[in-house]
UniProtKB/TrEMBL annotation:
InterPro entries in the record: STPR (IPR048998)
Domain STPR: 6-67
Annotated source species: Dentiscutata erythropus
A Pfam family assignment: STPRs
UniProt biased composition (Basic and acidic residues): 1-11, 18-59
Coiled coil start-end: none
Name of this protein: 8228_t:CDS:1
Region: Disordered, residue numbers: 1-76
Length: 76
C-alpha cells in the first residue's frame, strides 16, 4: 500500500511538472524520452521483443474494437 501511495505521489509530481514546463523544456523531455525508448528497444532480447510486439498488437486490436463500437453507437 505504501508503494502504491508513493507511485501515486510520484505520478502526480511528474504530471504537475509537465503542466508547468515551457515549450523548450517539453521538446527536451520528448527528445530524451524518444532516446530512452530507442535505447531500451535496442537492448531487448528476441523474447522481450516478441512479448512487446504481442502486447502492442493486442492493444491495437482493443483500440480498434473500441473505436468501431463507438462509431456504431454514434451512427444510430
Amino acid at each position: 500500500n505504501e508503494i502504491a501511495d508513493e507511485l501515486s505521489h510520484d505520478a502526480l509530481r511528474k504530471r504537475k511538472s509537465r503542466e508547468n514546463e515551457t515549450p523548450e523544456q517539453r521538446q527536451k523531455r520528448l527528445a530524451r524520452d524518444r532516446e530512452n525508448k530507442s535505447k531500451k528497444k535496442n537492448a531487448e532480447s528476441a523474447e522481450e521483443r516478441r512479448k512487446r510486439l504481442d502486447k502492442e498488437k493486442e492493444q491495437r486490436q482493443k483500440r480498434r474494437a473500441l473505436n468501431s463500437k463507438k462509431s456504431l453507437n454514434t451512427a444510430d
